[in-house]
Design goal:
alpha+beta; seven-stranded antiparallel beta sheet; 3 helices; 7 strands; 37% helix
Length: 174
C-alpha cells in the first residue's frame, strides 16, 4: 500500500505553531534592539507566524512530495514491495529523509535526493531482534528503534508510529 507524502496539521497544531512562532520572532526583533514600537513588533510577529504556517506545509509538500513519490528501491529477484511510507533514518546525527519499504524479505530505507547522505539501507526480517518505540529528541513520540541480532540499531522517525510498528511486527511473524 503506497502512502504519499503530505504535511497535514490539525487546527490546534496550526494555532499553537502560529503563536509560538509569532512569540519567538517578536522576541528576537525586540531583543535585537530594532527602533520599532512594541505594537509594530507584535504585528510583524503575528504576520510571520500566520504566513509561515500557511506557506511552509505547502512548500514542503511541493518540494519533498515530488521527490518521495519517485523513490524506487533496488529489490531482489522475487521480492515484492508490500507497504511503503515516508520516514527518516538517523545516520549518525543526521536524520536522512526518504521512504521506508516493507517487502516480503526485508525492510528497505531509500533516501531522497535532497539529503547529504544518500543511499539504501536493507534490514532482513530474519536479522531483527526487536522493534521498539522511541522518542525523537527525548520528547516527540514518533520514533521506532529496530535492533538486529548483531546489536546494530536503526532509529527511524515516522508518522503513525503505532501503525507502522504493527506492520513491521506482522512481517516478523510471517
Amino acid at each position: 500500500m503506497k502512502e504519499n507524502f503530505k504535511i497535514k496539521l490539525t487546527c490546534k497544531q496550526s494555532l499553537v505553531a502560529m503563536f509560538v512562532l509569532a512569540f519567538f520572532y517578536s522576541a528576537v526583533l525586540y531583543l535585537a534592539g530594532t527602533n520599532q514600537s512594541v505594537k509594530i513588533i507584535i504585528i510583524q510577529g503575528a504576520l510571520y507566524g500566520v504566513l509561515f504556517i500557511l506557506i511552509f506545509p505547502w512548500t514542503m509538500n511541493k518540494l519533498i512530495g515530488k521527490r518521495l513519490n519517485t523513490i524506487v528501491p533496488k529489490i531482489l529477484s522475487g521480492e515484492q514491495i508490500l507497504e511503503e511510507f515516508s520516514g527518516s533514518l538517523f545516520r549518525g546525527l543526521e536524520a536522512v529523509g526518504g521512504k521506508v519499504f516493507l517487502t516480503n524479505y526485508q525492510i528497505i530505507f531509500q533516501s531522497h535526493s535532497l539529503n547529504i547522505k544518500k543511499g539504501q539501507t536493507n534490514i532482513n526480517y530474519s536479522e531483527i531482534e526487536s522493534v521498539e518505540k522511541r522518542k525523537t529528541m527525548k520528547i516527540v513520540n514518533n520514533g521506532i528503534k529496530i535492533t538486529t541480532k548483531e546489536g546494530e540499531e536503526y532509529c527511524f522517525v515516522v508518522n503513525n508510529r503505532e501503525v507502522q510498528i504493527q506492520k513491521i511486527k506482522d512481517k516478523l511473524t510471517v
